[in-house]
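Re: that backbone. Tokens:
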């Protein structure tokens, strides 16, 4: 009788295992196309909405459309987030900058401007900081140090006596 030889298991015992996962990427297997862990997929690539609409130009006056490509902090979204192609991303950036220049879109978000100090807001082109209150007017001669008791008003020097009738000599 012919004796059956077990398949070569490489010195280990137990049931045979599936295909090896340390092969080249894209070799298949339960990990998917990229050889990663099972169930982990790459997200679907975004399509440029301007290419779908066959847009030749992006108009800076179309604020409702280009506002979607600005983050909540007022920054221009990158291509990897918005899904636009390189050509339309360049046109979109130009349109957004023109709309900002024409004051159709803000340079920064409202909540970012609220956190700025008054001096920084003035440097950024906002309203100037409020001026501090001026102390009340005090005439010169009534100096009172802060926190001390008020001094009595200085007495004016006595006026010189009027000369009496001139005596004539002579």
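Recovered sequence:
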């Amino acid at each position: 009788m012919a004796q059956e030889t077990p398949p070569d298991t490489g010195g280990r015992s137990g049931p045979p295992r599936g295909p090896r996962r340390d092969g080249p990427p894209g070799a298949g297997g339960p990990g998917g196309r990229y050889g990663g862990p099972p169930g982990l997929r790459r997200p679907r690539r975004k399509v440029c909405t301007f290419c779908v609409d066959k847009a030749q130009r992006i108009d800076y006056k179309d604020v409702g459309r280009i506002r979607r490509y600005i983050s909540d902090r007022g920054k221009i979204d990158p291509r990897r987030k918005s899904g636009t192609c390189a050509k339309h991303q360049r046109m979109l950036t130009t349109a957004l900058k023109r709309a900002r220049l024409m004051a159709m879109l803000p340079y920064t978000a409202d909540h970012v401007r609220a956190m700025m100090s008054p001096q920084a807001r003035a440097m950024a082109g906002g309203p100037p900081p409020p001026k501090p209150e001026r102390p009340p007017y005090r005439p010169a001669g009534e100096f009172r140090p802060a926190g001390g008791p008020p001094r009595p008003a200085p007495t004016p020097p006595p006026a010189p006596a009027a000369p009496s009738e001139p005596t004539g000599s002579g």
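The domain at 49-123 is CATH 4.10.640.10 (30s Ribosomal Protein S18). The chain has six helices and no strands.
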